[in-house]
């Protein structure tokens, strides 16, 4: 197609001739002052981009509390610290769980990361996903175990609440009186509490001019056991023990009375063969 500008003509040369039995045709030519018509600009409206899908916020984790969280064991009874009674119950409360749903609250006692005891109860949340009640576990808390309380509704689990169970402050020597021969044959065990769990405890024993020092780590209840027997020249007298916590600065002392005639197992001053260890719990028996 040819275009013209107003008032001016565009010349067109068009001819056809037979040349040597062939067809020759001239193509249209625009005049010098003529220009081709530009194609019209597209007026099509581009399709709008798909809106980005809104991000779904992550659901908030449920919250859970259990109180009290700190307990003190009973006094040493000759074989272990007395257990803690939970007769007053644990106040347990949670929010952010599914509405009107059963939540299982579990009290677990572990030793070296292995579950030893478990006890559970079930509560039902209200229409907001919350609960607040008192739970009285059937069993108490024993020495040597790490305790935690958890809450779960089958879909979500709240952060566990750790319970601190501490041995009472004090030190006791077993036996408190023994003969010189027994000091060599069976020795003495010193049990002490009131320290910070996991801290280093230094035990210094003084007897008949000899001063000996050993150290060990307090257990999860902040208690240690130190056992020793002596050899050398062992006279009647008193053995004094001082136990000191490296972090807490807590100090416990106790004494042992040694009776009887002097016993000589080896020449020289009395020398203890002792070792400080965390107290070992009398673990509950698990049937199955």
From TrEMBL:
Stretch forming the signal peptide: 1-31
Renumbered residue ranges of the record's region Disordered: 30-63, 260-288
Keywords annotated in UniProt: Signal
Comp. bias intervals (Low complexity): 260-280
Name of the molecule in the record: Bacterial Ig-like domain-containing protein
């Amino acid at each position: 197609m040819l275009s013209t500008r107003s008032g001016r003509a565009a010349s067109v040369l068009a001819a056809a001739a037979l040349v040597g039995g062939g067809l020759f045709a001239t193509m249209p030519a625009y005049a010098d002052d003529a220009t081709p018509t530009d194609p019209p600009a597209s007026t099509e409206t581009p399709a709008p981009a798909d809106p980005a899908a809104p991000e779904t916020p992550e659901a908030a984790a449920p919250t859970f509390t259990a109180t009290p969280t700190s307990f003190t064991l009973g006094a040493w009874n000759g074989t272990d610290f007395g257990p803690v009674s939970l007769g007053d119950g644990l106040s347990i409360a949670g929010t952010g769980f599914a509405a009107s749903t059963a939540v299982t609250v579990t009290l677990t006692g572990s030793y070296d990361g292995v579950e030893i005891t478990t006890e559970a109860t079930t509560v039902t949340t209200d229409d907001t996903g919350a609960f607040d009640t008192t739970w009285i576990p059937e069993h108490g808390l024993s020495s040597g175990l790490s305790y935690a309380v958890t809450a779960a509704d089958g879909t979500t689990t709240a952060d566990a609440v750790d319970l601190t169970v501490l041995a009472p402050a004090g030190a006791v020597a077993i036996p408190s009186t023994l003969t010189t021969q027994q000091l060599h044959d069976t020795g003495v065990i010193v049990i002490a509490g009131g320290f910070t769990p996991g801290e280093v405890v230094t035990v210094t024993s003084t007897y008949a001019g000899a001063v000996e020092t050993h150290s060990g780590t307090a257990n999860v209840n902040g208690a240690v056991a130190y056992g020793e027997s002596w050899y050398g020249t062992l006279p009647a007298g008193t053995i004094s023990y001082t136990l000191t916590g490296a972090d807490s600065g807590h100090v416990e002392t106790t004494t042992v009375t040694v009776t009887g005639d002097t016993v000589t197992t080896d020449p020289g001053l009395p020398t203890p063969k002792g070792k400080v260890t965390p107290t070992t719990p009398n673990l509950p028996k698990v049937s199955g």
